[in-house]
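WARN no homologs supplied; continuing
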Amino acid sequence: MPFVVTNGVRLSYQRAGAGEPVVLVMGSSAAARTWDVHQTPALRRAGFATVTFDNRGMPPSDRPEGDYRLADLVADTAGLIEALELGPCHLVGVSLGALIAQELALARPDLVRSAVLMATRARSDALRRAQSAADRELRASGVRLPPRYRAVTTATEMLAPATLNDDRAVSAWLELFELAGGGAADGQAAAADGLGDRRAALRGVSVPCLAVAFADDRICPPHLVAEVADAIPGCEFLELPDCGHLGYLERPEEVNSTIIDFLIGNRDKVAAGAGAGILPDPAPAPAGNGI
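OK structure emitted
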């Protein structure tokens, strides 16, 4: 497995296919190979090259001690894009990966051609703040929940009722969650806690974006995803039914077609503009936030 060293950490990555590059940014505590179950094969069939990588904290990438800042993960992603000479590239992010993608689009528009932001948010509401605080207390207590209990809790938090009420489907998910274990990767859990309210800042995003909400998402519910779409100028918004926080795995065909249609649509717009002698405005200078 190849590695790239950026921002003081070593990141594992995989690159495959030919065409415009799409960098896929995974959420907290999930391995990059999760994208390979459904998304990367579909993107390559559609004529895109794909690049996936394990965020810091997820083996075999480095696992620095302590809590991570969102800015750390954004800088990691920017450095990987630069090291592999991918920019400007398309970004697809989910959950924490979507937060990384939208912050990168804001700070380094020169590296980003477009961004698909799934299960994202620009702030935490009261319930999500309470969830984060409770999770921090549980981790600090050192209590280890039994694997079966943890699997049931994960299923009810992450999956849609349509999946939970399907005996065959939920049984497979419960087995998977029990085998996979639980708990956020060391350091990653804190990355989104300091997000604050980014709605005003996101008005400065200048690249085409699509915000995708999963209708039954309890972690990043549609009203928070819609706030991101409202904040980013020209951002498209789509809500997919019968999806929980893992909608990209629950309803992969719908998610894949949504991503691909958006990427191809923007590619065609750029091509049409170039053919008419209309070129996009130069990317503004990177924001001065240390990234």
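The chain has one domain: 3-125+187-275.
OK
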